[in-house]
Specification:
The protein is an alpha/beta fold. It has three domains: 86 residues, Helicase, Ruva Protein, domain 3; 172 residues, Rossmann fold; 108 residues, Arc Repressor Mutant, subunit A, CATH 1.10.10. 50% of the residues lie in helices and 10% in strands. A five-stranded parallel β-sheet has the order 2-3-4-1-5, with helices on both faces. A three-stranded antiparallel β-sheet has the order 6-8-7. α9 crosses α10 and α9 packs across α11. The radius of gyration is 27 Å and the shape is elongated. It starts with 25 loop residues before the first helix and ends with a helix. 38% of the residues are buried. The structure holds adenosine-5'-triphosphate and magnesium ion (MG). Adenosine-5'-triphosphate binds next to α2 and α11. Magnesium ion binds next to α2. Involved in regulation of DNA replication.
Length: 397
């Protein structure tokens, strides 16, 4: 028998992979086109500048790369992409631009401003037009100061009479506070051309994962619910910063697939996803000891109900309630909590304890019902821990 394999194309799960399609970034893409189309169609006609902002994993880098693909098809304008996490000073960034143009740049003796002039003359002499992308430009601001960036943004202010603009600029940053660090002139030009990248919702993350899984994993090794489970914990939620990050979602998918494969499983199971989530997200699950006795019992009921369906990451509220009633009987507890009280516990476990996630069932089921999952911790670990606490508390009562 051949080795069981879950991952078909590992490259599709790496950060460098360029997916064939971008999910829900049409608006950002068309704004980029609007700002740069004239520059691309008649190169040098004006100085186009844009600032892409959004928190980590919102698709800024990938959108700029897709824009490069689009622009390179139709024009003679070249793209020079500068990863500022590698080129952390203005000097290093400008050197990199020169090297991308295959210029021989003197090693020392020139300031970044002087190097930029040398590069500009080279572009003029060779009748070349470029769009420079400075990705994660905050590195340069942190190391070389905002003034050096301001000078680049207002480069042509120092070239009065110049009407042939040999380079344009795309800046990428995580938030708009960059603007406040710039001089008034630079701030106002750039401020007019901000393109925002909001955090991804659960549905958007789900779509990104679905596309990615299709590229990366063998058919039949995952299902919709596995992808939903990951989007539950990575998709943006009101008032909860730090979520909506596609990078994290893809990382979780990759880790879960790898674990499944290493354990010789044909499919990714919810338990593989739980471990991957725990290893990826900095989630702090509350101390379970602090929960009410019956809240702990209800949580154990959810755990047990989930354990009965090894393949499925969700149980319905009804299934959890049934399990709770059985548990109360097993522990010899005559007074059980009402349906309404259990519902209250459920909200508490989601909001305060951060141990479960809920979602409404899709169209498959009759009516809409609440589905419950436990994505942050292995069920075996939870079952052991809860049973230990409950055995003790019930013994000393
Ligand atoms: N709309 C999308 N459709 C498909 N894949 C996406 C989309 N947005 C992001 N991704 C994928 O998610 C990952 C993160 O995206 P990207 O690197 O562009 O984020 P970023 O905003 O540049 O984050 P950072 O600020 O950390 O650099 C990449 O693997 C990218 O391919
Ligand atoms: Mg990026």
């Amino acid at each position: 028998m051949g080795e069981l394999s879950v991952i078909k194309n590992p490259a599709a799960l790496t950060p460098d992979f360029i997916p064939p399609r971008l999910v829900d970034r049409e608006e950002q893409m068309s704004t980029l086109k609007m700002i740069f189309d004239d520059y691309i169609k008649s190169p040098g006609s004006f100085y186009a500048r844009a600032l892409l902002v959004g928190s980590t994993g919102t698709g800024k880098t990938i959108t700029s790369l897709k824009f490069k693909e689009y622009a390179s098809r139709s024009s003679t304008v070249r793209f020079i992409y500068v990863p500022c996490w590698t080129h952390r000073t203005m000097h290093s960034a400008v050197r990199h631009i020169g090297e991308s143009l295959k210029m021989s740049i003197p090693r020392r003796g020139f300031s970044s401003d002087e190097l930029l002039e040398i590069i500009y003359d080279y572009l003029k002499d060779n009748d070349m037009y470029v769009i420079i992308v400075l990705d994660d430009v905050f590195h340069i601001v942190n190391n070389s100061g905002a003034d050096s960036l301001g000078l680049l943004i207002r480069f042509y202010d120092e070239h009065i009479g110049e009407h042939d603009y040999h380079f344009s600029l795309i800046l990428i940053d995580r938030d708009e506070s960059l603007l406040d660090k710039l001089d008034a002139g630079a701030k106002s030009t750039l401020g007019r051309n901000i393109i925002k990248f909001p955090p991804y919702t659960k549905d958007q993350i789900y779509e990104i994962l679905r596309d990615r899984a299709q590229e990366a994993l063998h058919q039949g090794t995952y299902n919709d619910e596995i992808l939903e489970m990951i989007s539950d914990v990575t998709g943006a939620r009101d008032g909860d910063g730090g979520r909506g990050n596609a990078k994290q979602a893809i990382e979780i998918l990759w880790k879960a697939a790898l674990t499944a494969q290493q354990q010789g499983s044909r499919r990714i199971l919810p338990e593989h996803v739980r471990v991957a989530i725990k290893n990826t997200l900095p989630v702090h699950v509350g101390e379970l000891k602090g929960m009410d006795l019956h809240e702990k019992l209800f949580l154990l009921a959810i755990v047990e109900a989930l354990r009965k369906k090894r393949d499925v990451p969700y149980v319905t509220f009804g299934e959890a309630e049934e399990e709770y009633i059985m548990l109360c009987e097993r522990y010899g507890l005559r007074t059980k909590r009402s349906h309404g009280q259990l519902w209250h516990y459920l909200k508490d476990m989601e909001g305060t304890w951060r141990i479960i996630e809920t979602r409404l069932s899709g169209k498959g089921m009759r009516g809409r019902t609440t589905l419950i999952s436990i994505p942050y911790e292995s069920l075996n670990v939870l079952a052991q821990e809860l049973t230990r606490i409950l055995d003790y508390e019930l013994a000393v009562r």
